Amino acid sequence: MQGHGKPPNGRYDVGFLMVPGFSQLAFSSTLEPLRMANHLADRELYRWHLISRDGAPVTASSGLTSNVDHGLERAPTPDLLLVCAGVDVQRHCDRATLTWLKRLAARRIPLGAVCTGGYMLAQAGLLDGYRCTLHWEHISSIHEARMFPAVTFSSQLFVMDRDRYTCSGGIAPLDMMLNLIGRQQGLELAEAIAEEFIHERIRGVGDRQRTPLRVRLGHSHPKLEEVATLMEANLQEPLSLDELASYADLSRRQLERLFQRYVDCPPLKYYLELRLVRARLLLRQTHMPITDVAHACGFISPPHFTKCYHDRFGHSPSRERKRRSDRQAEAEALQVASLAVRSAPDEV
């Protein structure tokens, strides 16, 4: 069964590769539309099975553990395979998993991913020459680290490019699956599922991940949006207040008043916040040296970066890195403990 057409037997088999640390919200948003399609159609349009690397239960980023149906080697061949990932996906791109995904691709099985699962497909070389997306936080990190040059990353909610279906996190998978169901089973069923889930509108491939500034602020001011966009595009080499005002055809005082009225803070403070939030993403999601992170976010020296970071987040950049390591160790311990409990013999 190729592409997203309706299967000849009326049933479409979906495999979910569950990666440790997966997002439970993204996974549920992917699976539940299939369940509801079966319920509303009163027949089995879709069937699914869960897969892990070794067939063992998998722990989500929330700490909840999910049983699976198969390990890699015994998993049946699906009509579509979706990689469900979340935090620290880089740590789980082992050779056995990537080889298994490559085998499916060689058999022309359509592949997809939700949240950060696209990273695993890209690591396997299975997105080369494709357009794709993943959560916006990770897109910026990948661009900064100059990874996967043969892949075109998009800020769209989801991308359906030939036999690759990729989606960002949160509830965006719901929209991707509703679009898939609409193409296979008809728009009427997709809209009925959306109504059951109190989902006001089925978003399309043209929708973007991040909320426009005018929506976040509750106001629409063209000059404010123009300056904020300039700031976001110039984090590594920040523009001066005079340069920002000049580009927007405003005086310095007009720009300051505009930010004070609509954002309730000076423009340079808003600019600094953008740079520090970007720095935190790079510290959490890449292995870039702290000095390189400082440079990438427009700080003239590591000490200046450390001071600004501590003032904003209450701890140093090095402490941020350590907290990331601590979270990884805690997740590993939780996974081991869960497996130990499940493998322990029942008491008589």
TrEMBL record:
Domain HTH araC/xylS-type, residue spans: 225-323
Alphabetical list of Pfam families matching this protein: DJ-1_PfpI, HTH_18
Keywords: Transcription, Transcription regulation
InterPro entries cross-referenced by the UniProt entry: Class_I_gatase-like, DJ-1/PfpI, Homeodomain-like_sf, HTH_AraC, INH-QAR
Keyword Transmembrane helix appears in the UniProt entry: no
PANTHER family found in the cross-reference section: ARAC-FAMILY TRANSCRIPTIONAL REGULATOR, HTH-TYPE TRANSCRIPTIONAL REGULATOR RV1931C
Protein name, as recorded: Transcriptional regulator, AraC family with amidase-like domain
Organism listed in the record: Franzmannia pantelleriensis
